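> example.struct
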């Protein structure tokens, strides 16, 4: 039963969060945390029709997981009827070299469209998941992969058959090294004749396969001591590159996560990931298969510059660990395009990365000698970026293009793979190039760029060969918040996904002329009338001076349009998650609920600052790696600078500063309250990392190496080591089935605080939520607690 005092508090709280701000439409907590469909579902996949005359896009139905397809023609959008869907394409397409044909993957079936006549031909029906569709070198056929097997569809005959069949198994026909078998074949003539006859038939079949392309190839046996991690078929059908790993490698002890609320009514458990350093990632090997002979050759990594040098040797010695012997372990890395063939199949490039994350290489393969030929090395004493890893071949079949952070920022380069000439930088400056798209003739590259401001994303273009050898980079859009883009089939238009602070992703087209853009035509606005009609507090993009020197810390400021003279406002600092993420941009934020919550805070007397602290994305490698071996230290300096900025410039109350965030933001909330307890009076740590030794390997080992060789980095970077310093008010909030940052992190911190007899803290648990909350009720309850925390601790009574 509710007591009168609680009822009075609830009524006061409900009234308080509904109070209006001077220049914005009032928002309540219940509305801000409700299902985001009330905002309007954003545009998802979008694509041009085959002739470029229409645009299609997908959109989620309100209150449903179902997606519909819409057509935009003559400025009007209409729902595409189910009966029309077989006639249209999808966003997943691959063009041939002169953009006269394209492959379309739709509903996991493969089609080919003739872009002159519009004829659509179905290649597969009901196949298992198809990947890596590509044209053959002569463009007479199409290759694609299902699982580990490669298939080819011939356009003229409409016949589909296997092109390469790699098998992680012993060759059943290979002779066994067995002395008893050899003795039997030597002594028993009948057995010897049978074996010779089988061998003769197999040899003849192999001869016929080489002479008769209509016959299916024989499997390629790679041995039973490996697993197949990936493969890539040359467009001329002659070569297969296969990535393998040792079979049965120890991947470390997995965790068991309890689930207390289930349909069964009983507690259950599920397996979850291993922790950092509990067995290193399994290294890869690279095998080259000659599909004419089925000969398999191992490609050594010895040619990679620096592969035999251990950058962690000093740390390893200090930890009394044995030194590494031979080459460092290497993996084939680069996402979907870790291996890329030239269109004629004559050359191939492979992206490789050291398991310690200090080096990344791009190398071509001498197909005749089965040897690597290094073309590019990116090395970083901290860690090389897992992002901005695109590369490929230009139409001349010899020029490699790639993105690299070698200048300190991600930029576009080209290199002639057949000469010793130095690479050529097509872009330069203190900005980032990403998401590169080349015209079919290789003359112009389009890319995302943030030249004017780190958070202002446009599409830029650059010619491969600029006037007087100096490439000219030019912006072709003026939308500020470009998310991604695609070229039309005739390359005369861009289809752009864009967004803004309070507008979820929409689409627009931009005309192109000579590699320069025209005025954008915005095609959609899927916001609901209710959301569209609201006036929001627009974030101010501010550059906070840094006490560390160098570049400022960019931030989004939320405050009343007019500050009351003489009044001091309680300050709330927001910390985004992921670490390597950019939230101070002109795009629609990942944290759109938090943005509405910031409106609510301003309505009720706070000023709010949301910072892209050091480690954030979009600011170059030095900004990203500032936290190497010291997570939570440079970032905290940035937040203390942010507090000073709010006090000095926006009437912030230095005595009443709060901080909150989720995931990495939860981690940073702990670091703020426990390493700067006199600056931060209150904080809400949501789904936080409390001890980095419990997080995953792929992320954590980049930044802190591994606990066995760098224990001091983990001790310095883990909030649980600073729990004794806590003085302020703390809310810990965590989903109990979080399979990213485990609930155990918060439970261990709670036990530490209990043992230290700390007060003014609480733990809120959500039995059915994972790392990203789903249910509006959980969102509401969490942010109700955050609001109440700030109200009782940051406002003078």
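> example.seq
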């Amino acid at each position: 039963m509710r007591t009168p005092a609680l009822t009075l508090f609830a009524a006061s709280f409900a009234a308080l969060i509904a109070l209006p701000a001077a220049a914005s439409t009032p928002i309540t907590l219940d509305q801000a945390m409700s299902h985001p469909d009330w905002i309007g579902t954003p545009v998802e996949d979008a694509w041009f029709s085959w002739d470029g005359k229409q645009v299609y896009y997908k959109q989620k139905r309100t209150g449903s997981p179902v997606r519909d397809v819409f057509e935009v023609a003559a400025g009007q959008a209409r729902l595409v009827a189910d009966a029309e869907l077989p006639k249209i394409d999808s966003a997943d397409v691959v063009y041939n070299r002169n953009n006269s044909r394209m492959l379309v993957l739709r509903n996991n079936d493969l089609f080919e469209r003739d872009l002159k006549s519009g004829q659509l031909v179905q290649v597969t029906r009901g196949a298992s998941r198809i990947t890596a569709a590509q044209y053959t070198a002569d463009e007479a056929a199409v290759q694609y992969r299902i699982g580990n097997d490669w298939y080819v569809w011939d356009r003229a005959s409409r016949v589909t058959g296997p092109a390469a069949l790699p098998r992680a198994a012993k060759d059943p026909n290979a002779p066994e090294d067995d002395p008893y078998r050899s003795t039997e074949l030597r002594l028993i003539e009948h057995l010897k004749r049978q074996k010779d006859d089988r061998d003769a038939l197999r040899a003849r079949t192999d001869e016929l396969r080489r002479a008769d392309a209509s016959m299916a190839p024989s499997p390629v046996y790679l041995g039973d001591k490996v697993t197949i991690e990936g493969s890539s078929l040359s467009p001329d059908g002659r070569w297969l590159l296969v990535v393998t790993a040792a079979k049965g490698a120890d991947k470390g002890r997995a965790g068991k996560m309890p689930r207390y609320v289930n349909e069964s009514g009983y507690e259950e458990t599920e397996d979850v990931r291993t922790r950092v350093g509990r067995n290193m990632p399994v290294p890869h090997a690279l095998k080259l298969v000659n599909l004419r002979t089925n000969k398999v050759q191992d490609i050594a990594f010895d040619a990679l510059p620096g592969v035999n040098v251990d950058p962690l040797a000093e740390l390893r010695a200090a930890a009394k660990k044995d030194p590494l012997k031979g080459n460092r372990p290497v993996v084939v890395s680069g996402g979907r395009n870790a291996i890329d063939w030239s269109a004629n199949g004559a050359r191939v490039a492979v992206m490789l990365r050291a398991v310690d994350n200090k080096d990344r290489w791009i190398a071509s393969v001498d197909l005749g000698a089965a040897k690597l030929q290094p073309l590019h090395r990116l090395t970083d004493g901290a860690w090389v970026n897992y992002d901005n890893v695109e590369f490929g071949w230009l139409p001349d079949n010899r020029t490699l293009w790639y993105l690299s952070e070698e200048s300190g920022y991600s930029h576009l380069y080209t290199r002639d793979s057949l000469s010793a000439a130095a690479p050529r930088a097509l872009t330069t400056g203190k900005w980032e190039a990403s998401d590169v798209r080349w015209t079919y003739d290789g003359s112009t590259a389009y890319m995302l760029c943030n030249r004017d401001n780190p958070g202002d994303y446009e599409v830029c273009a650059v010619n491969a060969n600029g006037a007087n050898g100096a490439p000219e980079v030019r912006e072709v859009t003026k939308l500020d918040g470009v998310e991604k883009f695609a070229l039309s089939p005739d390359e005369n238009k861009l289809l752009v996904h864009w967004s803004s602070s309070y507008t979820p992703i929409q689409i627009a087209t931009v005309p192109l002329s000579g590699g320069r853009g025209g005025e954008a035509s915005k095609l959609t606005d899927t916001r609901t009338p209710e959301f569209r009609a609201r006036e929001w507090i627009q974030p101010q993009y501010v550059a906070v001076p840094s006490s560390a020197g160098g570049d400022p810390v960019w931030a989004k400021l939320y405050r009343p349009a007019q500050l009351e003279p003489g009044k001091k406002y309680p300050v709330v600092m927001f910390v985004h998650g992921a670490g390597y993420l950019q939230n101070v941009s002109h795009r629609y934020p990942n944290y759109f609920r938090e943005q509405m919550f910031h409106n609510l805070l301003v309505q009720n007397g706070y000023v709010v600052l949301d910072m892209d602290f050091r480690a954030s994305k979009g600011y170059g490698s030095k900004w990203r790696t500032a936290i190497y071996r010291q997570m939570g230290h440079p970032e905290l300096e940035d937040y203390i600078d942010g507090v000073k900025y709010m006090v000095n410039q926006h009437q912030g109350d230095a005595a009443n500063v709060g901080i909150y965030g989720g995931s990495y933001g939860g981690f940073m909330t702990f670091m703020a309250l426990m390493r700067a307890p006199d600056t931060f009076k209150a904080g809400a740590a949501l789904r936080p990392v409390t001890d980095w030794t419990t997080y995953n390997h792929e992320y954590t080992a980049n930044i802190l190496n591994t606990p066995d060789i760098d224990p001091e980095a983990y001790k310095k970077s883990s909030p649980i080591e600073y729990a004794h310093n806590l003085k302020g008010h703390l809310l810990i909030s965590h989903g109990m089935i979080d399979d990213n940052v485990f609930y155990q992190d918060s439970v261990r911190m709670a036990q530490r605080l209990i043992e230290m007899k700390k007060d003014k803290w609480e733990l809120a648990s959500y039995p059915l939520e994972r790392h990203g909350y789903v249910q509006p009720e959980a969102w509401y309850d969490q942010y109700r607690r955050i609001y109440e925390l700030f109200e009782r601790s940051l406002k003078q009574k």
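> remarks
The first strand starts at residue 43 and ends at 48.
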